[in-house]
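A student in our group prepared the protein record below, which I am reviewing. I have pasted the whole thing underneath without changing anything:
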Amino acid sequence: MSLQWLRIENARCIEQAELEFDARCNLISGPNASGKTTLLESIFLLGRGRSFRTPKLEALIRTQCAELRVVGKAVSGQRTLTLGVEATREALRARVDGRAVTTHADLAVALPVQSIDPEVHRLIDGGPLERRRFIDWGVFHVEPLFVANWRRFQRALKQRNAALRGGASPAEVQAWDAHLVEAGEHVARQRAEYVQVLSGYVGLAGDRLLGGEITLELRAGWSADQSLAAALAAAWSRDVERQQTPIGPHRAELTIRLDGAGARGRVSRGQQKLLAATLLLAQLQCDADRGSKLAVLLVDDPAAELDSRHLEALVTEIGSLRSQLFVTALDPQNALIEALSPGRRFHVEHGKVARLV
């Protein structure tokens, strides 16, 4: 999978840009606050329907503009797909080959994209949602039924919680339990199977990048010595009191350990970045080996917060992937970044993007 062409209109400081990319590696250079990250953010938006920088859609739109547009052509084998996203301050509309799509999953299928950005450390020191998203993105791309199971679980959870809040009878509330349990256990099993496979890739990548042992432990969201049905039954009184369902895969947690110690809150920001990057790179390799499309990888300022030794290890690991790469750098002459052998180079300044000869 590669992004062949991109047009951006009214994204942050970029008023308009139209670019053709190398299928392997693209280097984007320029000073701080010039628009480099906005270019990557636009690609991410095209494949995820959101930003990697902020949950607020309106923050992406150029000041005093009503909407932004991003259009791209993605190539997978012999097939070319046209993707388009339009975002206003209230809503986002997306199309794939002219067909309106209503979920971010449709974009993710058309253009799988992952990022190693300045906020990547949140995978380590952020809340459980960050790590659930990480696992679910990987499961989504290798397990065709995962999204259907997750949506079924979410529908049952929403209805059960609504019944609890509405003061429904126990029979009316518990009518949703069978649906919630069936879909929830499918989700938990698919996650667990995925983490088991991923752990092997993470272990190897951790040794290369950090010289240490990284281990993953996934908790399903309820006690390991109970079925989900039994856990729901045991928590019935608490659910009624709180008017919500705090048990299930929506409360799953991934624990990440480095050399046996929990990584969250224990390692430096630079180590967090490198550890999170290790997990993402291992995931991309794992998913590709399991038959998913090669994801586009965005790497925003890899040199930030890393010493030369760790930067060299990270660049070597990135270069070993078969993914299409988009890499930003303050210094385009950095010898380590040059090791990626960029096929095309772009310079961004004051929101203007120019291809370098």
